[in-house]
């Protein structure tokens, strides 16, 4: 595992990224480029090294390759999301040579936040990372409710924290972003385009997959949703108690 070098000295409060890729050349290229962009960087050559790193460091984002020897990226992301630790909610940007729609859907079903196919331009990767981090830190606008309640759930919009009867529920960065938009427009319709944002998630079919995944966490019967409802031909709305 390699830590950031002497190329630059990122600020102490700079976002700390974990790069997981079995190709040493790619790891080094990404490490140097992202350090130059102002990030703190740790690298791992496989899922085992990444797991060890995440036990001791709270990362702001994981850049994860899919095709690796041993445990692949899909399996690793699934395990991270199922973990009871705080790292379960860390944003994940998946890198892969696979570009089939089914592969992207699988990643989003697992809970990754964005998807970038190889080969890619480093600048696009940097923009994707900045977008994910910006969404994760998005403040709540003045005049909007600070939290909403629906059934046994309470969602703190500012903190992005979902609770069920007082117990914190694990959600991904994408799910947090969608809940924020839906909560800030509680009772109103939010279009698929607005919910999908930008990048690989900006696809009607993939946003439907993500909404269905969120429903499995907040609905008693996801097939007959009470709270997160479909507005046919337009988008979705969140019905809240207050």
Give an overview in words:
This protein has 242 residues and is an alpha/beta fold. It folds into 2 domains: 16-136, Rossmann fold (3-Layer(aba) Sandwich); 147-238, Winged helix-like DNA-binding domain superfamily/Winged helix DNA-binding domain (Arc Repressor Mutant, subunit A). 37% of the residues lie in helices and 20% in strands. It has 8 helices and 12 strands. It has helices at residues 24-36, 47-56, 73-82, 101-110, 122-136, 173-184, 192-196, 204-218; strands at 16-20, 40-44, 61-65, 92-96, 114-117, 147-150, 153-156, 161-164, 167-169, 190-191, 228-231, 235-238. It has a 5-stranded parallel sheet, with helices on both faces. The chain has a 4-stranded antiparallel sheet with strand order 6-7-8-9, covered by helices on one side.
Number of helical elements: 8
Q: Under the CATH scheme, which class of the largest domain?
A: Alpha Beta
Could you tell me the CATH topology label of the largest domain.
Answer: Rossmann fold
- Characterize the main sheet: 5 strands, parallel
Beta-strand residue fraction: 15-25%
SSE-based structural type? alpha/beta
Query: What is the CATH architecture descriptor of the largest domain?
Result: 3-Layer(aba) Sandwich
Question: Overall mean pLDDT score?
Answer: 83
Number of domains: 2
Question: Residue share in helices?
Answer: 25-40%
Write out the CATH superfamily name of the largest domain.
Response regulator
* Uncertain stretches of 5 or more adjacent residues: 1-6
Instruction: Kindly state the number of beta strands.
Output: 12
SSE ordering: EHEHEHEHEHEEEEHEHHEE
Please state how the strands of the largest beta sheet are arranged side by side.
2-1-3-4-5
Cα-based radius of gyration, to the nearest Å: 18 Å
Question: Shape from CA axes?
Answer: globular
Assembly type of the chains comes to: single chain
Distance from first to last alpha carbon = 48 Å
């Amino acid at each position: 595992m390699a830590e950031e070098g002497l190329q630059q000295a990122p600020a102490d409060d700079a976002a700390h990224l974990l790069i997981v890729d079995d190709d040493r050349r790619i790891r080094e290229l990404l490490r140097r480029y992202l350090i130059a962009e102002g990030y703190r960087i740790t690298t791992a050559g496989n899922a085992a090294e990444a797991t060890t790193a995440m036990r001791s460091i709270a990362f702001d984002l994981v850049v994860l390759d899919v095709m690796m020897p041993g445990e692949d990226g899909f399996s690793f992301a699934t395990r991270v999301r199922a973990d009871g630790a705080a790292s379960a909610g860390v944003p994940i940007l998946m890198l892969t040579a696979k570009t089939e729609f089914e592969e992207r859907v699988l990643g989003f079903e697992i809970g990754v936040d964005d998807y970038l196919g190889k080969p890619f331009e480093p600048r696009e990767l940097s923009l994707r990372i900045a977008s994910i981090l910006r969404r994760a830190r998005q403040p709540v606008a003045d005049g909007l409710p600070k939290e909403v309640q629906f059934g046994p759930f309470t969602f703190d919009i500012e903190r992005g924290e979902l609770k069920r009867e007082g117990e914190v529920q694990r959600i991904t960065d994408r799910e947090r972003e969608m809940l924020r938009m839906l909560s800030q427009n509680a009772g109103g319709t939010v279009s698929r385009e607005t919910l999908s944002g930008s990048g690989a998630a900006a696809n009607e079919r993939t946003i439907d997959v993500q909404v269905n995944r969120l429903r499995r966490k907040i609905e008693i019967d996801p097939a007959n949703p009470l709270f997160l409802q479909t507005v046919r031909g337009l988008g979705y709305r969140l019905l809240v108690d207050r």
